[in-house]
Amino acid sequence: MPLLRLATRESALALWQTEHVAARLRTLHPGLEVELVPMTTRGDQILDKALAAVGGKGLFLKELEVAMLEGRADAAVHSLKDVPMLLDGPFVLPAILERADPFDAFVSNHHARFDALPQGARVGTSSLRRQAQIRALRPDLDLVDLRGNVNTRLAKLDAGQYDAIILACAGLQRLGFEARIAERLTPPRLLPAVAQGAIAIECRDGDDATARLLRGLDDGATRVAVEAERAMNRALHGSCHVPVAGFAELFNEKLLLRGAVGDVASGRMVRAEAKGSAADPEGLGQRVAAALLAQGAGALLGH
């Protein structure tokens, strides 16, 4: 009986996502044994500093990739928004699952809507992208870093440390906290992170046996959308060090890609959108990036 070992972070959300992938694989390949290989990453260990200050979201991948290179795991399951725009080393993404809710969630115990927040309210989020967009919408709010897993962040809100926090809808829904979502923050008001809501499976380049097992979970519509978003981010040299947002939607064979770049300190935002063929997501991403750069995004990104 073949065995597939999936490396995963140990957070509740990462374990949920990997169990979900394992269940899908067992259904797809009857008789396949799937084993989880949980591990703690540097990104999970460093909770007292903003991600951008300690090396970015790649910190959530490194230990999992080492486990694959050393033969302790065959594949790794990630939130695609945590995966760097260029994979570091001999790795590929043979499967990107159908995207869940891609948008951000406004979570508050005392305010039903984002617009109902009083002046000076304390809002928690660790994302520079969210901070920049919120600053543009409500320069009066007090934006405070918020790190930790979903349960930790909710506990800090419940302890009264924040008037509201902003989290990803998908993470709350996957962990059974959908009732905590007071309001979904949808475009054009707030654009999500590139690839938010999508789960990706990574394996070693050249490991064709593993890639074949995983490829059946790939969702074509999600892949072309996130490829456009990631191409835009690559062309902007974006990372979690900089506030870049992007969201692509597929309509028949056409993709609509919206992008935004902001500045956390000033709340200045530049936005662009374009339509293109789903057959060329890379080209569409580059066009939107060029439009953003033409409006001065480079200065906001520190280029």
Question: What does this entry show, briefly?
Answer:
The protein has 303 residues and is α/β, with parallel strands linked by helices.
Jot down its keywords.
single chain, 303 residues, alpha/beta, 5-stranded mixed beta sheet, 11 helices, 33% helix
Physical arrangement of strands within the biggest beta sheet: 2-1-3-10-4
General shape: globular
Helix content: 25-40%
- Helix-strand string: EHEHHHEEEEHEHEHEEHHEEEHH
Strand content: 15-25%
Structural class: alpha/beta
Largest sheet, strands/sense/barrel: 5 strands, mixed
How far is it from the N-terminal to the C-terminal residue, by CA? 52 Å
Mean pLDDT: 92
Strands, count: 13
SS field, number of helical segments? 11
Any overview of this molecule?
- By secondary structure, this protein is α/β, with parallel strands linked by helices.
- It has eleven helices and 13 strands.
- The strands form three sheets. The protein has a five-stranded mixed beta sheet, sandwiched between helices. Strands 7-6-8-5-9 form a five-stranded mixed beta sheet, with helices on both faces. The protein has a three-stranded antiparallel beta sheet with strand order 11-12-13.
- β11 (244-251) and β12 form a beta hairpin.
- α9 runs parallel beside α10 (281-294).
- The longest helix has 17 residues, at 12-28.
